[in-house]
Each structure stands twice: as C-alpha cells, then as structure tokens.
Amino acid sequence: MADDQFLDSQRYGFETRAIRAGQPHDPTTGAVVTPISMATTFAQEGVGRHRGYEYGRTGNPTRRALEECLASLEGADHGLAFASGMSATDTILRRLRPGDHLVLGDDAYGGTFRLISKVIAPMGIEWTAVDLTDLASLEAAVRPTTRIVWMETPTNPLLTVFDIEAISRIVRRSEALLVVDNTFATPYLQQPLRHGAHVVVHSTTKYIGGHSDVVGGFVAVDDDELAADLAFLQNGVGAVPSPFDCYLTLRGLKTLGVRLDRQCANAEAVVELLSAHPAVSAVLYPGLAGHPGHDAARRQMRAFGAMVSFRVAAGRDAAMRLAAATQVFTLAESLGAVESLIEHPAAMTHLSAAGSALEVPDDLLRLSVGLETVDDLVQDLSTAFEQL
Q1: Catalytic positions, please?
Q2: What is the CB-side half-sphere exposure of residue 50 using CA atoms within 13 A?
Q3: pTM for the complete prediction?
Q4: Does residue 303 sit in the same domain as residue 239?
Q5: Which terminus has fewer CB within 10 Å in the chain: N or C?
C-alpha cells in the first residue's frame, strides 16, 4: 500500500498515521524504519532534472518523512521541520516588516518573549501584550498594521487556556495571522487549524520527541502561498534539522499517543494530591472544574495534558526549596519527555520576562509529569513537602 494513503485522517486514526504516514517501507531492502539519509547532495539526471532532492539544506528524505507525518497529525496540508522551536518561531516572525505590529498573549514562553522584545522589536516591529482571555481587549489591540496574533494554549507556565475559535473569529476580521503554539497540547490532544488558526508551531524537543535527546521545531499550515513563503525562508535562512535529528523526532512521534495517555493519567493523580495539600495555595490545571479555561479545554482538547503548575503558600524561598527536594521529579528545564521534571519558572525558563508584563509569580512551580509509576510520583512530592 502506498504510504501517501496513510496521510488520510478520514481513513486512518492518529496512532496509525503516527507510525505510517510519510514513512514507506524502504523500496530496496523492505526496512520498516525510515532510513537516515545523510547525503548533503543528490545526483541529477540532467541539469535541473532531479528526483525531488538537490541539496541537504533544501530537502532531505528523512526530514520529508517527518514533515509529512507531523503535518498529517496536525490535519495540515503542509509541514516544515526546523532545528529548534525557536528557529521555527523566528522563521514565522521573519515575515514581519518595519512598521508591522504583533499581538502577543501576556502569558507566553519566556524564549518567545525574549525573541520578540529583544530581537524583533529593535528591527522596527511594534508589539503589544494582551490578556487573550479578554476578547474585548484583543479586539482593541488589533490595528490595521497588525500582522500576527501569537498565542499559546495551554500557556507556559500558567496553564491558561484560550478559546481558539473565538479568537480566530476576531483575528480573521483583520489581515493578521493567528499563530498557535501547540507545544503543550501536541496534535494528539488538540489541532488548532481545525478551530480557525492559520499557523501551528511546535517545539518538537518536548512531547513530540519525547525522550530529552533531540532539539527541534515544526510549523504546520494549510495555505499554499504561506507554506511556499515559509519554505523559502526555511531554505534561505537554513535553520534545518539534521537527518539524525529528524529520525529521532520521528521515532518519538510514533509513541506520542500512548505516552500522553499515561502522562495525562499520572498528572491527574498529582493534581489530586496538590489540590488537597495545605502547603499549596493554588493549582493551575485545565482539568480542574474551577479552572477559568476548563470549558474551552473540554471543547478543543482530547484530554487536559500532563503539565501542572502550582503556587507554594509559604512563598518564593519555600518554592525553591521544594523544587530542589524532589528525587523522582528532576530539577531541570524543558518538559514533555518520559521523565518527570520540576522547575521554578521565575528563576529558570521565564527569567527573561522578569519586570515585564509577562513576569510570572515567584512562588510558582511547574511540573512536567512523566511516565514513572504514579505512586512514586505522588510519594516523591509528599516527601518533598514534608521537608519544607
């Protein structure tokens, strides 16, 4: 059966496409795993007559397999792989010109904020941080010069959930593109294009790679012209992943669904512990009925995810002691892999947002819940709390 048939989301389910879409058996050997093509250049049958590939930066068979597979899982017509999530983000932002305006959700990843405020803004790009749960504020912020509205949902690290369809209705009345960072949810839990987004971006370093061993990024779009523009930038700027990185990411992608099923279940048990603990002043998790974005999450997500944030009642110092006291949860940046991680965003991943509208509370801890035995995770946190 031709591999392009496995791209069809109407015929095949998510897990089947994660394993087969864009990944034909090797025609020479029958190998069931997509080969790693290390070639930097490809023989041509005549000048300008090639078999789909010319030069490794422009295109590569292993990268193409990843791009086709992940685009299928996002329900997108086009997919582009990058060397990191930030290079994917940077490529989208390179479409802006001096005088253009960007709207950024006021709860965003610190690296995105740093790129916009420190790199893009000095080039003559204006930007506004807005609470995207307030649709009236979003409408007021969109200008005739607005070209991008950038949002994460759920957000990092406050786990805010935005209504993609409601926001897309506002954005589509302008000339702006709605870009959704889908890193936390992944295409397994949420497909933003189906809810009106123009562009989806990922750090594939996180859940998609899933094993803390490869850095990567991805962009998914439906519009042919936009896809061609981004592909030109992908090739022209050159921030592409290596064939081996693509292989590792594609390998991780095959188990995304089964991993998230377990991680979401583990996260729910962790949330139950935190919600009842007297040392915790607030638990931020979309699965809680009292979460402001709970209803939106139920509408647009398959499950509520495996990221959990909480605030420590005794404040910053206690939060930092707790982060250093766990044994099963590793104190480290990043997220989404098989191992559970704990971090203090204000002093780690979101330090660049200190003193800005995107500053996060200094008593906040963020958990990336992994695949360990759930009882071990709960006990680890319980023991750490006892040391406060």
Answers
A1: 57, 109, 181, 206
A2: 12
A3: 0.95
A4: no
A5: N
